[in-house]
Design goal:
The structure is a single chain. With 153 residues, this protein is mostly helical. The protein folds into three domains: 64 residues; 31 residues; 43 residues, no CATH class. Helix content is 50%, strand content 0%.
């Protein structure tokens, strides 16, 4: 029987935090700037591309990562079996909430008419239905009255 000892990592120097923080700020700044320009989700793929490009540039210029390894370091590689098993378990738990919700509340849930566009990060096909007061409502119906909570007609 062998006992494995944990590997002692060297302490993180204060100077190592500066490149990490700078890279985080550049990546977050790209996400924040592009997402702030268009908050409806119509440009989800563009926002993804800009943020991913910023992260790749940080890897290349801050950490001196060879460009052939950048995508795998950003998580675009072949996943290991254990990671797939954990992801499947978490997904099953999350997806199990939907039938449990409908069972407990008696509500019926449906898909939006443009649900395939949502799979790729866009909501281009149709906008949210408009309420009688002109506001968008995610429920697909009229917005509730602010005083009574009942749907307005």
């Amino acid at each position: 029987m062998t006992v494995s000892m944990p590997i002692a990592h060297p302490p993180i120097r204060r100077q190592a935090w500066l490149p990490y923080l700078a890279g985080f700020l550049v990546t977050w700044g790209a996400l924040h700037a592009t997402a702030s320009l268009e908050a409806t989700g119509n440009l989800g793929l563009v926002i993804l591309a800009v943020t991913l490009s910023a992260a790749a540039l940080v890897e290349v210029f801050v950490y001196r990562t060879p460009t052939v390894h950048v995508l795998s370091l950003l998580g675009f590689g072949r996943p290991r079996g254990r990671a797939l098993l954990v992801a499947a378990g978490v997904s099953a738990v999350i997806l199990g909430v939907v039938p449990l919700f409908t069972l407990v509340t008696g509500q019926s849930l449906g898909l939006r008419s443009n649900w395939p566009w949502l799979l790729i990060g866009s909501s281009r096909s149709t906008a949210w239905p408009r309420s009688s007061r002109g506001g968008a409502t995610p429920s697909g119906g009229c917005a509730p009255d602010a005083r009574t909570g009942a749907p307005s007609s």
